[in-house]
Amino acid sequence: MKNYISGIDIGTTGVKVIIFDMEGATVGSAYREYPCTFPQSGWVEQDGEMTWQQTCEATREAIAKAGVDPAEIRAIGLSTQRCTFTPVDEAGMPLRSAISWQDSRSFEECEEIGRLVGAERYYEITGLPVGTTWSVSKIMWIKKHQPEIYEKTYKFAMDQERILNKLGAEGYFEDWSNGSLQGLMDIKAFEWSDELVDALELDKSKLPDLVPSGKVVGKISRESSALTGFAEGTLLVSGGGDQQCAGIGAGAVKKGTIEVTIGTAGVTLAYMDEPIYDGSMRLPCSAHTVAGKWETEGLQNAAGSSLKWYRNEFAVPEIEKAKALGVDPYDLINEQVEAIAPGSDGLICIPYFASSAAPNWDPFARGTFIGLTLGHSRQAMARAIMEGVTYETREIIDQMITNGVEVNAIVLSGGAAKSDVWNHIQADIYGKTCSILAVEEATALGAAVLAALGAELYANVSEAVAHMVKIVAVCEPDMQRHALYNEYFEIYKDAYQALRKADVYERLVKLALK
């Protein structure tokens, strides 16, 4: 009887289920896309029950495609979007739509955290700068604006513990990596902070139980077996936040190796043996999915989703042509982008389409094109978006280096890693060699590694990574292009700072809310 493991990646815009063998090869996979909703400017929500239904559909298809006996799938690990949470009652039913990590409605609550706790003390406890991304400010928003929902809430459940519960876990178990992004966890103790819970007047009993990643928390129930196709009794293992899982799936489990994921969001992550704080409080220090270790990262709220916006709103001809040819519209967009010169003919995109997280933490920032002329094409806009997202990533990498983090090797993952032209843009802008993974879905692979650890199929993370994570290509930087990009990068940074200092973004957002 062979051993297989499953990694389920529940992301912002879709769920991917992959069945892996013990060497990290994909034997079956399926994907289901789902939308977010945007009730008001800056608000981003999602139907949590829809996410669950789509997960069930994807698992059934992945198992069928794999052609394996479900009983041979030894364990299941979850990689989930972070900070997105649903208030659920004792029966596990949602009391409202999930509030997304991209949602920036809670800027007033962030100001309240600053007053009640202080930005420096908050960072010291949580490793996080005060910002709208973390769940805590939106939990406070619910308490203030929807008190009846707050009172009825049994648990504020992220996708990790909510889906594990639906699969069969008896309780709500949140791994440390996801817990550290709630904005209420003591990053050194890996426990909920009583100081913060008390200061913000929140009910600690409404928070999930914290556990390390790679821990068995239950088994597939009879009911969920019928819905998903997994065998009853299959082990359920605590996974992690999608980006910390991607760190494992990319092999970023030692000093000097950083992982850049450009998916719906963008995250640049570096492994740390000890917590390294950022004196400027711009970059978080969070829990890794390697139990008892840490990572520093920079979050980009809209990375691949920026290019998806371009695809949906501007690339209608490419979508229609792709349907006729039976190819992905992004393949055609990539061909067009490759024909545009580096620098996009003087066009710069500031890619804050869902406000700015790292490194500026500006809830009012919005997407901006600088230098647009009548001579620019749609295709130049597409390249400018790729370059803009990469400039934002480089700011994060530069800050990591300033903080004393070693950066010797860069591994690329996420949907953008399918784009050869975007991979080369990254190598040129960073000025460093970038490696490409055999399994692009590093998040799902990382979750599968954790599942294998929970099932005791490997002794430790290093052994599992050595067997399951493989590099298939490298992109070397063109140093002449790197020098050119350095000049554009300085203009990019100056342009954002000029708009921020003039309060352009804040005035615009508040005017739109009137």
UniProtKB/TrEMBL annotation:
GO molecular function annotation: kinase activity
Keywords carried by this UniProt record: Kinase, Transferase
Domain annotation Carbohydrate kinase FGGY N-terminal: ranges: 4-249
Coiled coil: none
InterPro entries, alphabetized: ATPase_NBD, Carb_kinase_FGGY, FGGY_C, FGGY_Carb_Kinase, FGGY_N
Entry keyword annotation includes Amino-acid biosynthesis: no
Domain Carbohydrate kinase FGGY C-terminal as annotated: residue spans: 261-454
Highest taxon listed in the record's lineage: Bacteria
SUPFAM superfamilies registered for this protein in UniProt: Actin-like ATPase domain
Keyword Transferase: yes
GO BP terms, alphabetized: carbohydrate metabolic process
Family: Belongs to the FGGY kinase family.
PANTHER family, sorted: SUGAR KINASE, XYLULOSE KINASE
Protein's name in the database: Xylulokinase
Provenance organism: Eubacterium callanderi
